[in-house]
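dumping this here so i dont lose it
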């Protein structure tokens, strides 16, 4: 996997995000149950996106601070009245001030997990918990392979623009423990995810950095090829598109 750091701040369109990614917050709700937030707690939401899940978290009673690298998404999150700030997850600026850190569907955009976990550990109070869900090993593997093939056909290594980090249980447990966390639970499970449209909308919303190694003219052709290739393997008999999401979910504690 490339060690190049993708800039998670780039090119997020909150309107497209609502149309193509509303399920991110909806399907993230079980994480709130796992987090079990309480009134009186102060919780950081790392990679809050457009703030939909953060607003639900705040509705359960704790004081919430939300951060995301994208100014556009932070502007959208502030519309929910959230205390939201532009901040890169590789460079968190907090020290021993949170009872918990939550993160949903964001950590896989951060390709230097050691820097991210160091900042989370520092941000937590002693006893604080880190509860998160991210793409894990094998996540959206069909999509990654189809985009990779489109890149290869144009003379680029299949992984050259891959902006995602999808670790296994063992890899991420080791990363957490290296930074000092005690891992209470960590699981990897498939979560086939119904898309609101075809995979073209998904690619437009999420995969622009992956295709950005191509010229603008090549990008459109590569995207359309990937959609055509994926249609037989990602649609059910009624024509609904399903993505092969695999989640890595964990609870870790700073003892
Ligand atoms: C995910 O939530 O697993 C995901 C979202 C966008 C791009 C890649 C993965």
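and the seq i came up w/
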């Amino acid at each position: 996997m490339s060690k190049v750091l993708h800039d998670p701040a780039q090119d997020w369109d909150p309107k497209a995000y609502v149309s193509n990614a509303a399920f991110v917050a909806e399907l993230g709700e079980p994480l709130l149950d796992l987090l079990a937030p309480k009134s009186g707690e102060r919780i950081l939401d790392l990679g809050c996106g457009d703030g939909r899940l953060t607003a639900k978290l705040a509705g359960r009673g704790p004081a919430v601070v939300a951060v995301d690298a994208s100014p556009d998404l932070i502007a959208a999150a502030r519309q929910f009245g959230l205390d939201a700030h532009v901040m890169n997850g590789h460079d968190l600026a907090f020290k021993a001030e949170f009872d918990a850190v939550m993160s949903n569907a964001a950590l896989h955009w951060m390709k230097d997990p050691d820097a991210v976990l160091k900042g989370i550990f520092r941000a937590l109070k002693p006893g604080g918990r880190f509860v998160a869900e991210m793409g894990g090993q094998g996540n959206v593997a069909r999509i990654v392979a189809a985009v990779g093939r489109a890149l290869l056909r144009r003379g680029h290594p299949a992984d050259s623009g891959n902006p995602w980090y999808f670790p296994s249980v063992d890899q991420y447990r080791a990363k957490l423990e290296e930074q000092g966390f005690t891992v209470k639970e960590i699981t990897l499970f498939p979560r086939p995810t119904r898309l609101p449209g075809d995979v073209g909308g998904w690619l437009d919303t999420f995969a622009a950095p992956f295709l950005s190694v191509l010229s603008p003219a090549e990008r459109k052709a590569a995207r359309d090829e990937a959609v055509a290739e994926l249609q037989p393997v990602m649609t059910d008999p009624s024509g609904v598109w399903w993505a092969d999401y695999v989640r890595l979910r964990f609870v870790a504690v700073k003892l």
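Confidence is low (pLDDT under 50) at residues 1-6.
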